[in-house]
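Example: Holliday junction resolvasome RuvABC endonuclease subunit.
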Amino acid sequence: MTTTILALDLGITTGWALLGRDGLISGGSESFRPQRFEGGGMRFLRFKRWLADIKRCADGIDWVVFEEVRKHAGVDAAHAYGGFLATLTSWCEHHGIPYQGVPVGTIKRHATGRGNANKAEMIAAAKARGITPVDDNHADALALLNWAMAQGGEA
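Written out as structure tokens, the predicted fold is:
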């Protein structure tokens, strides 16, 4: 049986990739844009509910890895990332799921050989591995999942 790994590129549009117990990879991107008439915290509650759905559908998660961002171009993006990170880490703690942040440069270097690869290069790297990502967020999550698998898939 394979270790179930969830890889996340956290953000308003969150990229995700999941290595299931059957060894198959699924993924995509999920939007957590604020909806009309929604309070500021609702996106994080929707994110938490989405995590629970992924866990249920995967029959459990053994390890969560996420893209660890150290600087953002804008204040709104930084605030959103912080909220998603806090929600994710507290959810993992609650469920006893090990989690690990992986620096952006490490992921890009693993996928492309360059620590500062652009979006197009990350998409091309995913395609070279046989998966066509739905967008750059999904491509980043796929690269992160590939990195985690290369680590032996162990927390």
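The chain has a mean pLDDT of 94.
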